[in-house]
Amino acid sequence: MDVLMPQLGETVAEGKITQWFKAAGDDIKPGDNLFEIETDKVSMEVPATAAGVLAEIRVPAGRVAPVGAVVAVIADGAGAAAPKAAASAAAPSASQPVIAVRAAAAGNVAPPSARPIELDPFFEVRTPARNYGPARLAGGRSATPLARRLAAEGGIDLTRISPSGPHGRIVARDVEAAARPTIAAAPAEGLSADAVTAIYRDVPLREVPLDGMRRAIANRLAQAKQTIPHFYLTADVEIARLIVLREEANAAALKDKDGNPAFKLSVNDLLIKAWAAALQRVPAANAVWAQDRILRLQHSDIAVAVALEGGLIAPVIRQAELKTLSAISNEMKGLAARARAKKLNPSEYEGGSSTISNLGMYGVREFAAIINPPQATILAVGAARRQPVEREDGGIAFTSVLSVTLSCDHRVVDGALGAELIAAFRELVAQPVTMLV
User: Fold this and answer.
1) Same domain, 223 and 101
2) Within a domain: 207
3) Which among 18, 20, 105, 287 is least buried, having the fewest CB atoms inside 10 angstroms?
4) Residues near 191 by Cβ (< 8 Å), separated by ≥ 6?
5) Residue, of 287 and 153, whose pLDDT is higher
C-alpha cells in the first residue's frame, strides 16, 4: 500500500517530513504514527491506516514532497520486507538526493530515459534537464554548462561576454561579473538566486534556506500585491472609552478558587469585536472576490494575524459579531497558542471575511498591510498615543488615539464604501457600548 503525502487544507500544495517514527522493516499497526509533517501553516503527525510492514521510505526526513506524492510503502505481511538491518543499510541518506523507483512487477524495470535528468530541489522529483542554449557560440567560442545556466536565469547575452576560461571558454565568473552592471535591466521577476549571491560573494553572510512557510508567504503576498488593485484609507480613532471599558470588564471578571480570572481582555480583543460589528453595519463591504463574482458573507469571520518564528498565520474567529468579548478573548488566546505550535487545523485558518493586523505593540504608529486573498479588506492597527483634541465647547483635552489603515480591493470595495466602513469602525471604538447592544 502506498502512503501518500496528505492534503492539509485547500491552499496547501506540499509538506516537509520533519521526522520518521518508524524505520524500514518495522511492523505497522493501524493508528501507529508513521511520520511528522510540516506545511507552511501547521505541523502534525500522520498515522497508519492499515497493518503491515514498512517496506520502503521514499521521502526521508528533511525533504519536501507535493500533496499526493508517495512517501512510503507498506507491504502486507511480516515477510514482505527486507530485514531491518538490510533495510537500514540500503536506506538512502537524508543528505543524498536519491529517489527510489518501484518496478510495476519484479524484474519489470523501465529502460532509462535517453534525455538527461536533474533533481528539482523543491519537489524532490526528477524532471528532464532544462536547455540553457548551445554550448558553442558564434565565432568558435564556447561556454560551460554552469555559465549557460547563470546566463539564462539572469537574462544575460553570452555573445556580449568576454571569456576568461581555458581555451577561450566563458565560465561562471564571467557571467557573474557581467550581471553586476546590468542590475537595472534585470527581468521583471527579479535577479536569479545565483546572480544575487554573486553580488554579495565578498560580503560575510549566512544563507537561510526557505522553509515551506516562508515560500508560501512570499508567493502568496507577491501575487496579492501584483494582482489586487489596493487602495488605502487611514484614520485616527479615539480609544479612551475603549480602554475604560476594558479595565472595568477585567476588574469585574469572576475568579476561580485559585484567584485566576475567567478572562482578561486585551485592546485587540475589543478591536476584533468592533471590526466584526462594523462589517455588519456595512454589509456590502463584508465580501470576498471570487474572480467572476463577489461573495457577500452573512457573518463576520475575523482573521487575526499572529506572528510566528519565521512567518505569520491568521487564525479566524468565526461569527465574531455574535460572540461576547470574553469568548473572543479566550478563543483568540487558544488559537494563537496553537498557531505558534503549528497545531492549527485548516478549518481554523482558512476563509474569513477580513483580517486585522496589529503592530502597535512594537511601537509602529501606522502601516499599510497587504490583502490576504480572497478577502477584500485588511485593517492595519498602529500604536496608541496621547494627543490633544478640540472639544465641542472649544476647549483642548488630551485623549488616547491610535491610527488605523484600511487596505481595500478596489474590485470589491470602492472608495466611498471603504470610507463608510472605516467610519463605522471609528464610531464603534469611540462609543464601545454601542457594539454590545
Assistant:
1) no
2) no
3) 105
4) 154, 179, 183, 199
5) 287
Q: Which amino acid is at 93?
A: S
Set of cell numbers at residue 291:
474572480
- What is the distance between the alpha carbons of residues 11 and 224, in angstroms, rounded to a whole number? 14
> Could you tell me whether strands 354-358 and 377-390 are parallel, antiparallel, or unpaired per DSSP bridges?
parallel
Shared domain for 49 and 173, answered yes or no, is no
User: Does one domain contain both 86 and 171?
Assistant: no
Of 258, 321, 257, the closest CA to residue 286 belongs to 321
Number of domains in the chain: 3
* Same domain (yes/no): 67, 155: no
In this prediction, residue 283 carries a pLDDT of 97
Task: Provide CB contacts within 8 A for 417, sequence distance 6+.
Answer: 282, 284, 285, 408
pLDDT, one tens digit per residue, over 128-187 is 345 555 556 766 678 877 777 778 777 788 877 888 877 777 877 788 777 654 444 444
Whether residue 26 lies inside any domain: the answer is yes
Q: Are 27 and 80 in contact (CB under 8 A)?
A: no
pTM above 0.70, yes or no: no
Within this chain, do residues 23 and 158 fall inside the same structural domain, yes or no?
A: no
- 167 a catalytic residue: no
Q: What are phi and psi of 345, to 5 degrees?
A: -85, 150
CATH (domain of 117): 2.40.50.100
Catalytic residue among 167, 230, 299, 410: 410
**Residue 338 carries which side chain, given as an amino acid letter?**
R
Range of the domain at 413: 215-435
